[in-house]
Amino acid sequence: DAKTTQPNSMESNEEEPVHLPCNHSTISGTDYIHWYRQLPSQGPEYVIHGLTSNVNNRMASLAIAEDRKSSTLILHRATLRDAAVYYCILRDRETSGSRLTFGEGTQLTVNP
Amino acid sequence: DGGITQSPKYLFRKEGQNVTLSCEQNLNHDAMYWYRQDPGQGLRLIYYSQIVNDFQKGDIAEGYSVSREKKESFPLTVTSAQKNPTAFYLCASSLTSGGPLTQYFGPGTRLTVL
Question: Would you place residue A2 in the very low, low, confident or very high pLDDT band (cuts 50, 70, 90)?
Fold first, then answer.
């Protein structure tokens, strides 16, 4: 699977928007972009996914660059409960099947 | 409620003993996965199964074994051959076709080998 690069850590203030970047310069045309997050001492949970177009759901928005070499997860109003490790993962629907390969993610700290 | 259960939450074992971690799901998912997580690191895939009675090695299968006799269950045995078994173990499940193939995770088992 193509590799992703994320900052090790980011900080935000409560009730402010957060933009979490992910670079994936070797992405292929069949790679889906997935985001999961992991709260302390818990299993990861799905946040959002996309292929080419920007996506919104109740948790977040995903903005995908036109060349697909980068994407940004947007939390519109951070809360203390959003403090977690956020993983950006590429899944090749043609070769990986349902497998996901996790990197080290971005540790998001939310300040009150 | 539908979901994935793992038991126990905390497990202590002496070095050299085999130990089996339980994972059960009632989501009717075909695929199940076992991951290992060490402090400050991401998840690494140990084994996965796409269908009953079939499973494949992940990236770090050495020292582990699994079985998939029922769709709902995917137990992981940590054998004495695993050199550094102390870790946080996570089980997940997913569909294998249609949609984003979202993986749903259990609460994890924290294994400490003394």
Answer: low
